[in-house]
TrEMBL record:
Signal peptide: none
Keywords: DNA integration, DNA recombination, DNA-binding
Pfam families according to UniProt: Phage_int_SAM_1, Phage_integrase
SUPFAM superfamilies recorded: DNA breaking-rejoining enzymes
GO biological process: DNA integration; DNA recombination
Organism, scientific name: Roseicella frigidaeris
Protein name: Integrase
PROSITE patterns in alphabetical order: CB, TYR_RECOMBINASE
Amino acid sequence: MLPDRVSPTLPGALAVPAAVADAGEAAARRYVEFFMAQIRNPNTRAAYARAASDFFGWCGRHDLVLAAVGPVHVAAWVEGLGRRLSAPSVKQRLAAVRMLYDWLVVGHVVPHNPAAPVRGPKHSAARGKTRMPTREEAKALLSSIPTDTVVGLRDRALIGVLLYTFARVGAATAIRVGDYYPVGKRWWVRLREKGGRHHEMPCHHTLGEWLDAYIETAGIEADTHGPLFRTAKGRTSRLTATAMSQPDVYRMIRRRAEVAGVATQIGCHSWRARGITAYLENGGLLEHAQAMAGHASARTTKLYDRRGEQISLDEVERITL
């Protein structure tokens, strides 16, 4: 198998698989343009690049050049993926290769899309797999965060954003100081969600108190264009001007969970699930939760609804001998 090649003439010096590079400079350029021009979300770009690299790596191991790839080859690759990846992961990788080939067809690099007729594995989910803290665990973790340092205030406010606005972690880390703003007597939070959408949410009074305390202590009120949630300098309590990354937030949550003795293996997305479930448990409507979470479909919102889990547990406990 030939290694992927990096062409210095291509933007971003993106690694081009050997099977594509061997088809000529036009094919290599079209390949890079797919990732640089078509996909704006960096997370999606990275995921699709991994899928393409995996597929063309498979082609290289089977001595397939770009023009020789057909539906049977894509189907064989998908079959192999199914033995080591979950159905949703396989479907995502197939979708990435399918979209890439559509782009190559339009650019007259290949005559047809070999991934178009290939079906992915069937998959349906009635509930999400995101692990969610119980109400007691959530309270214990939040109350265990010390509020006598700016880092503690930052962590509490950040988790509060995930909990009270149902924000994705990527949207939370992208918040600027000026995205927390007043409208009349109420304060709002502006979120930058996937696809470049701006999503405004009224600020829960508890979240407002946490944000006010953090911003005042951090002294960042005037830096309206700067990131709201910032990294700290080493183990000090001094903040930098750099925004926290998603891995930073995950490590913070895991560290806070360990200190609080939370048994559930929670992460960033766990607070989104906890917030949606709490809202529905307190009489909120599913369609309103959908709008607040920015979901295109209520079916997606339902994946975060864990109200039935306790009922199921109570019923299982009835089984006694």
